[in-house]
């Protein structure tokens, strides 16, 4: 398969891991030779319930046997879409009850940006340096990493960047600003949490000048940080939420969420203000509903912080500079990018899947499934420490 992979599939990096996959179950992925890998990445935070979770699989099978795609989003009433939206609404503040389902997180970003500009009748968007909100043109425009963006300019005009956690920069939010878009915890930048009520201060400034606060919950949402939504950890309620990744339990999905008052602006003047053919696909929505129901009715969210503590307990070494993040969204910071890459690749060889972050080159991503067991956590940490020991010596 490998030669065909390079021949027929467009590549995203010069050196993909090129692991030949035969199956995946629970916290494990198996290659074509039968080797088992403990997955500490979960499809980059997407496989909330691990691989091939029986409730997700059954939901997909049942819906596929009932009907799949029938009409563009928003025209027909389809039970999986409606039930998923209602289930999400129950997890949200009362002012955030209108949900637009999309195919991915980056599409949700696009919708959220359009919604904010349309509602405020302003064009300026403020984002954070080293932010990541997706890779389509609009989403890339609010990603604050020029190394990524420079090859694709011109992008959408009117975007300004502030430094995450820098309160002085908050003054750059003015009456010209349509929205401030931030990750609740910065992902690609190194799993950086907001400090000193930073998000509250941003929201207060937005309220003062009539701008909207968009929080990107694509990674932090759906239970990954010990709350269903990451913003619940920081006592702030945004005007628009972006969701994706873990919402589908391994299936492709996204959503942007706001109040009915704000969301209604997309219905008219012009009509079809935001449209999608396959967004909210009933089979995908069924998978999302099964995922949400399992997370909210089980103890997984409560266990997330305990599992974080277990990981921190077993990942102690002089070469580990710090462990950033919250819950099961953690970044292990090592001494150099070279050591980081060597550790990731050597762990893969030993049967542990880890991964890089986009912009913080010293970081190792640790984002296992929410239902990873204590035993699996300890096993993975042992492999990781053993490899770091080899590098340290």
Low-confidence stretches: none
The strand line-up of the biggest sheet is 4-10-9-8-7-5-6
Helices, by number, come to 13
How far from one another are the termini?
37 Å
Shape, principal axes of CA atoms: globular
If you had to describe this structure to a student in words, what would you say it looks like?
With 393 residues, the protein is α/β, with parallel strands linked by helices. Helices cover 36% and strands 17% of the residues. The chain has helices spanning 2-8, 42-45, 54-66, 79-90, 105-120, 137-141, 146-149, 198-209, 260-263, 282-297, 300-314, 337-349, 374-392, and strands at 21-25, 28-31, 36-39, 98-102, 124-128, 159-162, 177-183, 212-216, 240-243, 254-258, 322-326, 329-333, 352-353, 355-356, 363-366. A hairpin with a 4-residue loop joins strand 2 (28-31) and strand 3 (36-39). 49% of the residues are buried.
């Amino acid at each position: 398969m490998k030669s065909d992979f390079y021949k027929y599939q467009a590549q995203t990096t010069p050196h993909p891991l090129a692991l030949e996959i035969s199956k995946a179950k629970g916290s494990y992925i198996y290659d074509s030779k039968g080797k088992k890998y403990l997955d500490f990445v979960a499809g980059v935070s997407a496989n909330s319930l691990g691989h091939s979770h029986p409730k997700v699989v059954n939901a997909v099978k049942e819906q596929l046997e009932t009907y799949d795609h029938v009409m563009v989003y928003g025209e027909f009433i389809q039970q999986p879409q409606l039930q998923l939206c209602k289930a999400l609404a129950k997890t949200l503040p009362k002012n955030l009850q209108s949900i637009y389902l999309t195919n991915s997180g980056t599409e949700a970003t696009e919708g959220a940006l359009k919604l904010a500009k349309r509602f405020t009748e302003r064009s300026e968007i403020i984002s954070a340096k080293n932010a990541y909100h997706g890779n389509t043109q609009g989403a890339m425009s609010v990603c604050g990493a020029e190394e990524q963006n420079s090859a694709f300019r011109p992008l959408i005009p009117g975007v300004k960047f502030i430094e995450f956690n820098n309160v002085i920069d908050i003054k750059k939010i003015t009456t010209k600003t349509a929205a401030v878009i931030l990750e609740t915890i910065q992902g690609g930048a190194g799993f950086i949490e907001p400090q000193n009520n930073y998000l509250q201060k941003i929201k207060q400034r937005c309220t003062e000048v009539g701008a909207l606060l968009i929080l990107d919950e694509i990674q932090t949402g759906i239970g990954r940080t010990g709350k269903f939504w990451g913003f619940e950890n920081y006592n702030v309620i945004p005007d628009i939420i972006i969701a994706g990744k873990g919402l589908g339990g391994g299936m492709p999905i996204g959503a942007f969420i706001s109040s009915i008052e704000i969301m209604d602006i997309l219905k008219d003047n012009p009509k079809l203000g935001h449209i999608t053919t396959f967004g909210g696909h009933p089979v995908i929505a069924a998978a999302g509903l099964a995922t949400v129901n399992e997370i909210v009715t089980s103890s997984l969210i409560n266990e997330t912080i305990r599992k974080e503590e277990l990981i921190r307990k077993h990942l102690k070494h002089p070469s580990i500079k710090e462990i950033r993040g919250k819950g099961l969204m953690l970044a292990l910071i090592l001494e150099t990018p070279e050591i980081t890459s060597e550790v990731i690749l050597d762990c893969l060889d030993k049967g542990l899947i880890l991964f890089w972050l986009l912009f913080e080159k010293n970081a190792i991503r640790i984002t296992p499934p929410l239902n990873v067991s204590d035993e699996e956590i300890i096993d993975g940490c042992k492999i990781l420490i053993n490899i770091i020991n080899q590098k340290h010596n």
